[in-house]
Amino acid sequence: MATIQPAAAGTGLDVNTIVSQLMTVERQPLTALDTQQSGITAKLSAYGSLKSVLASLQDAASAAADASKFNTAVADIADTSLASASAVPGTAAGTHLLEVQTLAQAQKLKSVAFASTATTLGSGTLTVEFGSYTGGAFALNPDRAAKSIAIPAGTDSLAAVRDAINAAGAGVSASIVNDGSGQRLVIGSDQSGASNAMRITVADDDGNNTDAAGLSRLAYDASTGGTANLTQTIAAQDSVIVVDGITVQRSSNSVSDAIEGVTLNLLKAAPGSPSTITVSRDSSAATAAIGAFVNAYNNAASTMQSLSAYDASTQQAAVLQGDPTLISLQSRLRSVLGAAIANASASGYGSLSAIGVSFQRDGSLAIDSTKLQAALNDPSRDVAGVFTAFGKPSDSLIAWTRAASTAVPGNYALNVTRLATQGQATGSAAAALQVTAGVNDTLQLQLDGVAATVTLAAGSYSAQSLAAALQSRINGDAGLAAAGAAASVAASGGVLSIISARYGAASSVAIAGGNAAADLFGGSPSSAAGLDAQGTIGGVAATGAGQFLSAQGLTVQVNGGATGARGSVNFTRGYGDQLGSLIGDLLDGPLAIRTDGLNASISDIGRQRDELNTRLATIEQRYRAQYTALDQMLTSMQSTSNFLTQQLANLPTIGKN
User: Per-residue pLDDT for 445 more than 70?
Assistant: First the structure.
């Protein structure tokens, strides 16, 4: 904007006022731009409100489409001091009688008393294994990984050994307890149960692994002839319960496989004092989710109505009255909720009204609580299918997994032409049962493509105990564990087989070498890579990935069984799933395009305003220059006029004289 100059002295011409009035006229296009921007900003605000309520509706629809909220169950126990109980969705209702005879407990061992925590124990290696002591023998638990813990010289004090044990992740924990006679190292198993008792062997750097000196003071083997320099303070013990007259023994106080679908957390033993467990359906989560969905829809519908309304009394239209984007959006939402569910046989319900949710005259939704509760309590049908992407296989060994957004409701025939297999390596001869340190104790293998080297403890084995020991060492390897690779080891006729825990083409086992390879697996062990499942879904060839088959947007898991026709999977899309997807498309599509367009218009108005302000500054400068020049010219003319007037006034006097 040009600098405003004061009017020139002389005629009294008010240049500032004249220029100001002229510029008021010139600035009228700016006012029009401001009015235009105000209207666009109001629309942007309205679209912001619309997007907010739609996002809330999408969240509520997604929550209602969560299948875990339906068919939930609750388990209550009369004596809450005895145990707590919970049930997974779909658990059958009923009552059960529970008696807790013993609680599971983890083994604890204590050392002799030491003078202080700084007392040197000695260097070497501790190896912790887990298993059970029965009849004077130790039976290794193949499902627990063995772990070796190095104790270097110089860091072998009582406190340092404790820290090394705790840092090793060996499945045990260590602490130091002062019982008045000295400092004792206490080692406890991290898992309870009779099969999780500890055997601790020592490779003592002083050369004697079993005496009462050096690191061997921590050796513990309670089997006949074993070295037990530690003392057991708490025995490894299973929990024993009686359910409906049937005795159940488990290694943990958390029992999830005694009553189908029910998890029991045992709190105390009370032999002879049973308590009643009641399992019932729990519809509270589903009722809350459906209620939230209805409220979110009504809030969205009300907002859309207010944004598009016309007030006849004031003759004022709402900011989005007649807006085609809003009209289309309202129509699409109502169309989804008003249509019948495709392939309703999957759930047994074909519409919202069938479960007590219906449209009212004003376009809102209302819930008939009695009708909804009756639907949720009906075991022959499934309300989940009204809201979720819902698949129901007819074969109990086929598990429904998920559906892509492209999946179309329908009944799809399943045919399995190949079951998934696990990679494995099998010996060509019976394994040698005597393991000698440094002679035949090391095995190199590749499991699921990850290389590892394991070392067996020296000793005499049976085929089964050798398989258990090898499995424990494989699954205790840190590199394999970090890669998520695990295996089981079986012995058949004395021949060992290592079997990957993984299914499919990513599963493999290969014997790579080591001084124990020939003795354990013979001269030419065989390997077979895992195979992915194969089959068809609805007549279309499926992609296999381990036990999973995927085709036509559907994915199922084949958990065994036979090859050939395996029934069908009945698939439907409920309203929550449909509405969640639709709103996502609307937010990312038409609404995003519309708001982007409005923001672009505001940016364009800003550009026009800047250009107009630049032009107005030039115009004002020109006006001011012109009227200042006019004022100066008038001043000059006024001076000339005054001079002439004066001269003319003097003419008669000159003549007379």
Answer: yes
